[in-house]
């Protein structure tokens, strides 16, 4: 069992590294190949960096995008380390690091010259990269740290929260450069948000119904799970034997962990899973 757990842990680490690398490549491609030729701003901290770079260029000063991304991430990583822990920071730093590296080495070439195409493709690549990282339990730095914090505390979809954060970028761009860049920036941010929500499937909630005859063993495991559960005493219609029903609501991201907890003590249990929308209540200790 220990060897299996160690193997599973190594696979998760390699998968997180791969997703951080994918984000670095996708986001750098989105900026250098597409969005920089669309006269629009991307979402989150990358958009803030683009905006600051444009403001410096107006003053005749060229500042590297990779440098701006690095500097702006420092205070947010300090906050994230305090709030989410070292493991969260580690992979987020790697994601940002890969992004900075590929921003330097991927050339700013134009594959297409249509502004709308550049905006949609670039924003889509960026949203996919962010969503892949979110699925592995870490963010891509920048405003995603704030969005993740709000998603965990307020239980709102990250795409919607990200749109609210990006509103400030649009306001500043209109004030400084006029409305010419507004439309494409809004389209790009919307596409990024949609792709984030589409890719980040693990933010959805599920209701899990467990039918078991080993109630006490499963209940002992669930006390370490971090979410509330409700026990109902039932009777099998055909067997007339006592069969207890345990109800749990959990994010989809934690579903595999819950399956393992149950299967460890009762491999014969019957589990039913359905999509769930949490309306209100203290979610972490939610009890049906």
From TrEMBL:
Pfam families: DUF2179 (PF10035), YitT_membrane (PF02588)
UniProt entry tagged with the keyword Magnesium: no
Residue ranges occupied by any DUF2179 domain in the UniProt entry: 227-274
Gene3D superfamilies: 3.30.70.120
Entry annotated with the keyword Transmembrane helix: yes
Subcellular localization, as worded in the UniProt entry: Cell membrane
Segments crossing the lipid bilayer: 13-35, 55-82, 88-106, 118-138, 158-177
Membrane topology recorded in Swiss-Prot or TrEMBL: Multi-pass membrane protein
Alphabetized UniProt keyword annotations: Cell membrane, Membrane, Transmembrane, Transmembrane helix
InterPro entries given in the database record: DUF2179 (IPR019264), N-reg_PII/ATP_PRibTrfase_C (IPR015867), UPF0750_membrane (IPR051461), YitT (IPR003740)
Main location: membrane
Name of the protein described by the UniProt record: Uncharacterized membrane-anchored protein YitT, contains DUF161 and DUF2179 domains
Organism of provenance: Ligilactobacillus ruminis
